[in-house]
């Protein structure tokens, strides 16, 4: 949690710092492509208030992120997602707003480009978030068990070497390729003491089922303790292991 806090805090300070330099120190060169503009365009943009409003937009974004930051330490499950959405909407929406201060000859093009980027980015993030929060299921078949959804897979019972019920989730050190959401983790992670592992877990919902199958390490649980224990017992019985 503290790592996430310091990352978000640093990003907020960067936005505030850039905005302050642009707005109060007239460091307009920090604005993308401003230096490459013809001198006449630069003067027109300054007269229109383009760089000044860009500075304000960055400062408001940074300030808003700082105000939302305490949510990370509450029970609100989607604090990180709220911060990310806030940042994207304010920045991308801000670029659309800034188009009104463009030079007249480029204003229509600026509106089109910034609006297109806004739609594509928000659409992509929305789809990615939807996929990331989709539930996963443990499906038992005759000779195999399957975890459904993104990063799911199928394994043979005869390859299962060990099944354990853990009361605490080992420390997850690195996310390699997966979804590390505020309430759920799915995909490939490095877990302390286990190395490369596949996670299908609801965070903070102990216990957790650990399955060693072949050369893979799998951690899985469910939304309720009783369902997790049921998954553990089914895996033990079908794998014909004595735990």
Description:
This protein is of the alpha+beta class. The chain has two domains: 2-132, no CATH class; 138-239, no CATH class. The chain has six helices and nine strands, in the order αααααβββββββββα. It has helices at residues 2-24, 39-48, 50-68, 79-98, 104-132, 225-239, and strands spanning 138-140, 144-147, 153-156, 160-166, 172-180, 184-191, 195-202, 208-213, 216-220. The strands form two sheets. The chain has a six-stranded mixed sheet, with helices on one face. Strands 1-2-3 form a three-stranded antiparallel sheet, with helices on one face. Helix 3 packs antiparallel against helix 4. The mean pLDDT is 92.
So how many helices? 6
Which structural category fits the helices and strands? alpha+beta
Low-confidence stretches: none
Question: What is the alpha-carbon Rg in Å?
Answer: 25 Å
Number of domains: 2
Mean pLDDT: 92
Strand arrangement, major sheet: 4-8-9-7-6-5
Distance between the termini: 34 Å
Large-scale geometry: elongated
Task: Supply the key terms.
2 domains; alpha+beta; 48% helix; 3-stranded antiparallel β-sheet; 243 residues; single chain; 6 helices; 6-stranded mixed β-sheet
């Amino acid at each position: 949690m503290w790592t996430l806090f310091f990352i978000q805090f640093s990003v907020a300070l960067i936005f505030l710092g850039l905005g302050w330099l642009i707005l109060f120190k007239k460091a307009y060169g920090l604005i993308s492509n401003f230096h490459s503009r013809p001198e006449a365009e630069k003067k027109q943009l300054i007269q229109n208030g383009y760089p000044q409003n860009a500075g304000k937009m960055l400062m408001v974004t940074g300030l808003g992120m700082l105000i939302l930051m305490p949510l990370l330490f509450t029970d609100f499950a989607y604090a990180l997602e709220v911060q990310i959405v806030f940042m994207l909407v304010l920045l991308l929406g801000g670029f659309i707003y800034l188009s009104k201060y463009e030079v007249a000859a480029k204003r229509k093009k600026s509106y089109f480009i910034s609006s297109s980027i806004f739609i594509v980015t928000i659409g992509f993030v929305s789809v990615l978030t939807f996929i990331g929060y989709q539930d996963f299921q443990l499906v038992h078949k005759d000779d195999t068990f399957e975890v459904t959804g993104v990063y799911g897979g199928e394994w043979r019972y005869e390859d299962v070497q060990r099944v354990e019920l853990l009361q605490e989730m080992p420390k997850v050190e690195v996310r390699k390729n997966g979804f590390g959401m505020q309430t759920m983790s799915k995909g490939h992670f490095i877990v302390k003491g286990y190395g490369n592992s596949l996670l299908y877990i609801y965070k903070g919902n102990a216990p957790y089922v650990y399955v060693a199958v072949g050369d893979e390490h799998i951690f899985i649980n469910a939304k309720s303790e009783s369902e997790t224990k049921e998954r553990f017992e089914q895996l033990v019985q079908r794998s014909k292991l004595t735990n």
